[in-house]
């Protein structure tokens, strides 16, 4: 099975399409057990969402599949990584993607996703440095003001 590129996850399903997947999943659950494929389809639809709570629910369903259905682990690794990436959980995204790349070092989708994750980590680092720099500057201004008062 071919995995889609990460950019494919940026295009959410239409609400009606996601509702079809949700209804199928819930109907099967109400009958006693949702099939792995139905659960997976719904999870993927949730990961594609722009809503963080949907993405989190999709990641939770994928985690259940990963734990309970070993033959599906390969594709779950990719989608778990993708879901965490979209939510900004870059360390988790890196962890799952590294597991996939360990198994399949030439997987182009995983390599592509790895580049996106690294850009996200770098962007997060730059924001953190900017916040720290801003806090240091404010602290310096406050300290300078206190020192001036102490001289008076």
From TrEMBL:
It comes from the Eukaryota. InterPro entries: Fis1 (IPR016543), Fis1_cytosol (IPR033745), Fis1_TPR_C (IPR028061), Fis1_TPR_N (IPR028058), TPR-like_helical_dom_sf (IPR011990). It is a single-pass membrane protein. CDD domains: Fis1 (cd12212). Pfam families: Fis1_TPR_C, Fis1_TPR_N. Keywords: Membrane, Mitochondrion, Mitochondrion outer membrane, Repeat, TPR repeat, Transmembrane, Transmembrane helix. Belongs to the FIS1 family. This is Mitochondrial fission 1 protein.
